[in-house]
Amino acid sequence: MKICGLTTPETLRAAVDAGADFVGLVAYPRSPRAVSPLRAAALLEEAGMARERPVKVVVVTVNPDDALLKGIADWIAPNFIQLHGSETPERAQQVRAITGAGIIKCIPVSGPADLEAASVWSEAADHLMFDARTPEGSSLPGGMGLSFDWTMLKGRAFARPWFLAGGLNPDNVAQALGASGAPMVDVSSGVESAPGVKEPALIAAFVEAVRATSPR
Ligand SMILES: O=C(O)c1ccccc1NCC(=O)[C@H](O)[C@H](O)COP(=O)(O)O
Predict the structure, then answer these.
(1) What sign does the CA torsion over 175, 178, 181, 182 have?
(2) What number does the ligand 1 atom closest to the CA of 167 have?
(3) All residues at 6 or more sequence positions from 157 whose CB lies less than 8 Å from its CB, including other chains
(4) Which GO terms describe its molecular function (predicted)?
(5) Whose CA is nearest to atom 16 of ligand 1?
(6) Parent domain of 158
């Protein structure tokens, strides 16, 4: 599971200690969870993760330019770049070459037809993420606590391992896993007390709820 949008060493550590597999740092200036590459590097250091990383570090971007990608590679050296904009597979290959990181591609979903977009990503992405499409004119393309009909994913096969995202929280994640058959889940606002303010107790409750649902 992935806990996204962490902004403090305490919550980063809380995610690791709870047993998250991936932690997400958002490099999108308009987000209430935004951290610069420099701040992200300091965060990892303050959380004791500068050298040894017990989890995969993901940097979330939206149509990133080369300068941002170079800054991310130099300062953070993440395991994955999450592409949350309108990037093409060709651009994703460039992102991989510039950063040396793996690629998580977000597919925005409002209806079953949106799932077809996954088919072009079998070469360029390591993982897919199905996240609720935010309404036209929204301030953010993700992290809005919106969900979609999870059942449309049930029984579907995709070329890459995938995350379910969008509107998940400790109270609904068990139902979401059952309804979608998701192999991995991602959460941001569902473990916050206000936009950008993560709560360690909610992070722990989310991880526990996933653990209690998943086969060991
Ligand atoms: O979280 C953000 O602020 C954000 C900003 C811009 C692009 C993507 C963003 N988040 C991406 C994520 O991976 C979120 O975890 C995902 O959209 C689910 O968010 P939520 O519905 O709040 O759990």
Answers:
(1) positive
(2) 21
(3) none
(4) phosphoribosylanthranilate isomerase activity
(5) 143
(6) 2-213
The closest residue, in CA terms, to atom 19 on ligand 1 is 143
Does the interface ipTM go beyond 0.90? yes
For β-strands 80-83 and 197-198, DSSP reports them as: unpaired
37 CB under 6 A from ligand 1? no
How many domains, the chain? 1
**Which residues participate in catalysis according to the annotation?**
4, 131
Contact yes or no for 102/77 (Cβ under 8 A): no
Task: Tell whether ligand 1 has an atom less than 6 A from the beta carbon of residue 87.
Answer: no
CATH number at residue 19: 3.20.20.70
* Closest residue CA from atom 2 of ligand 1: 143
pLDDT tens for 111-147 read: 999 999 999 999 999 999 999 999 999 989 999 999 9
Q: How much distance in Å is there from the Cα of 5 to the middle of ligand 1?
A: 7
State whether the Cα torsion 195-5-169-154 is positive or negative.
Answer: positive
Ligand 1 in contact with 162 (CB < 6 A)? no
**pLDDT greater than 60 at residue 216:** no
| pLDDT beyond 80 at 179 | yes
